[in-house]
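Before drawing any conclusions, I looked closely at one protein, both as residues and as discrete backbone shape codes, quoted below without any editing:
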Amino acid sequence: MSLIPTLAAVRYGTGLSPRIAPPEGRDEMMHKLQAADLVVRRVPQPGWSAKLDMTRRWMQFNSRSRRDPSEENRRRLRHQSTVLQRAFHEDATRMLVRASITADGFRERLAWFWANHFTVRDGGGLLRRSVVGYQEDAIRPYVTGTFSDLLTHAVLHPAMLLYLDQSSSVGPNSARAGGRRGLNENLAREVLELHTLGVEAGYSQVDVREFAELLTGVTVSRDGALRFDARAAEPGAERVLGTEYGGRQARLSDVYRALEDLALHPATAAHVSRKLAVHFISDAPPDNLIARMVHRWRETGGNLLRVYDAMLDHPAAWQPDLTRVRRPLELMAATARALGIGAELTSLAGRDVRQRVLSPLAAMGQPFQRPAGPDGWPEDPEAWITPQGLAERIAWAMKAPGWVPEMPDPRDFVDTALGPLASARTRFAATAAEDRAAGIGLVLSSPEFQRR
């Protein structure tokens, strides 16, 4: 296997597989990205509405049990808790299965990248075990479109509005002002700082407040849908980054217009292009790579396919050194893919999902759907290769071969998992191991397999 297909699978996809040929290179990756998203048909994931049905049902039983803690009410609550937890386990396994069996690994990685860029954390209320539905509806369908569409669907999704407290924000001079509800700047600040311009773009606190006032009225209905409440909207126009939005009558269309302008802002093109290049290529991507991506962004109005193409067209994209550390979820996906056990993950019992997937993810520092804050999972390798995290990675990798019904020969597996990226030291370790399980575990623990 030559180096370019290997890098295409390892750096931009979810790893090498004994059953699925890696892309030949950039052209094949882009071709697949422009075609239909086939793996969602093979492994459908519930959307927001379906997830909300389960969550709201749990909330109803929980509320009823608090008011009347009868045995019957507690029994119903326990049952619905089990239903919700089982669905959460299935969310995790379906995510791994998709990554393990897809021939379009770049799409999976992009879906994960953008879900992290627009982080919403699993939490309480309607966000209890429902975040996958947000990612499925608001992120995944738009990763090959324009950034404007992606931004709008992510920022105005009820999950994001709930997560960043926009649903309770009220204009100081609106009809609903007063009481305990007031202006909340969380969403406005994170959109400017994290999702679009970046922290060093030079916007002011006045811009944050004006944008927060423009966003008032954007809220969530009782059944978990986007709703615009004109009585909560701050009256009058707002000026954000020098452009005036709104006027006598508050309208949701003014929010859409502001988000579209932010998506096309030069600072957004620079911030997000750099973030893409850092995630996929290097801590310090070349300036001319970022310049190409920004140029492509601006000439195409933020067409993400064209921006990805500019990134993959740069020589830095295909340098053989693996500098990025696989996050724990990426490591698990690459392991399942290399061992050829992706489809089998769907049959795991809940206890096995906890023991093999969810608990190890948390121990390695990436609890499923629970990053620490709205900035998502860190990019720094040091954040993942800690003494405890590394010990957990190695322990998990040494156990993983035991989950395969028929273990491959480690001398073959080292080529399956790493191809030409395998070092002489790793090849020797695979050959000299005392048994097959140890040999495969050593390959999965190797520095090359831990990186992409």
